Task: structure prediction
Amino acid sequence: MTDAAAPATSQTTPATASSPAARTPEAPDWRRTAVIYQVYPRSFADSTGSGVGDIPGITARLDALADLGVDAVWLSPFYRSPQKDAGYDVSDFRDIDPSFGTLADFDAMLDKAHGLGLRIIVDMVPNHTSDQHPWFQAALAAAPGSPERARYLFRDGRGEHGELPPNNWPSVFGGPAWTRVTEADGSPGQWYLHLFDSSQPDLDWTQEEVRAEFDDVLRFWLDRGVDGFRVDVAHGLAKAPGLPDLDHDPTADAPTVQSACWGQDGVHEVWRRWRRITDEYDGDRALVAEAWIYPLDFMARWVRPDEMHQAFNFPYMETGWSPAQMRSVIDESLAAFGAVGAPSTWVLSNHDIVRHTTRLAQGVDYPQGHGVGPETPGLPDVESGIRRGRAATLFMLGLPGSAYLYQGEELGLPEAVDLPPEARQDPTFARTGGARYGRDGCRVPLPWEADSPAFGFSPTGESWLPQPADWRTRARDAQRGRPGSTLEMYRTALRERRANGLATGSIAWLEVPEGALAYVNGDVAVVTNMFAAPFAVPGEVLASSAPFGGTLAPDTTVWVRRDDAMAG
Ligand code: NOJ
Result:
């Protein structure tokens, strides 16, 4: 693996003393077992006082992640960007946005992470660019039919004067997926496709020039020493030839299945090409698919042996607090990913979805973001949600495979539900006229220190989204070393997960009362009471999500060393 402080020029670089542990016969492939912590750079730690997190801020706080016990860190985008979609609108894939720092800052961060034994995965956003990317600016300046426009999906409109969008595809963020441009002579012109915001034009991945450009971008970061890529919208790059109308009316609330704009077979040749590139490098570089596509055995196509290494298990994330549904999605996941030789992953929260403490507290999903408003039935019961969220996390961390944590969940942070409208920045909010709150509530900057400005997020007290006042009690320094805190529960779970080899194990379901769910993984029994009457769980306790004295109350998970009497 590359010494990140001195970017290598060759494509195969030697391991250095500061690299994370290499794979050996004893050490399993990290791409099958790692606990991966998602850093959302805007909201992790701000070193300058601007109110926006940055890369030196991450570097300064990496020790806390090593202390937590994770194996790897995934960074959401930090590339040069107008920040219309919080960095998922990239204008230069080979540079750091000035608000986040410099390439030298990045190299220093990578070096420090590797020195701590943490691998670093960066986000790659190939489906679209920013509208400020030089390619798109050139496309706007060029004529219809030009090579500049061919890199994107420009089409003539329908209707007598081309006044209607070329097809009926919706934007994920609301409204149509097409925007009309004004041509150089001032006349109303062609339309361009944007499956997300209008500031995020989709690239045309049938073009070899587009493919070659991303080959080069991947090598740029691999040569710097990154350990892999989380690939944004990995189900979206290929569109059905001719861009036909959708024959249904997809709403953002319905599970995404294969259609003219999602999950087209053409994406797989791109992932095989990327896999050949990462395989050229030493150090077990990883590719992780954000393929938000159902069902699971279809998603598993993204992690076939010559494609990516992992895919986010969104069906697991979206499963409610139900023993039957949870058992079924786990069986389905292990079968679907196992059938292609891939590990399953597990995830409960990320930067696009309401934090799982709040989702579970409500008992219903609010996938588009929750907030206080006229339609809101009431505020979530925060403490009961945290209790259930902790139980859900402890249940998840006993499962074999790889697990994802989203920054702040180790502090038990709930969704910030009462952000004022003027503070909201997610384009979803504006594109739907406020009908969908969007994702700002899970992106509020982290509390590090109870008694510092902005709870330690920034030296000046600035914060790009307001932090709830009661986060003082949730600050990391208020939880570290305090028995029973959420942070200590996560630390214990990660330590025991590693010590007991749970990531490389396999599970068998155990008999428990109705309303509960339990499995055994190696020597560890993981028992969750969702809503059964309290029942006894014998055995030596390794971890528990709430105080536990031998009888398991509802909304509680316990790990015990396996007692043969429990084996079902
Ligand atoms: C998925 C990312 O996770 C999300 O935050 C982003 O808005 C879209 N892709 C578009 O890039």
Notes: The first helix runs from residue 30 to 33.
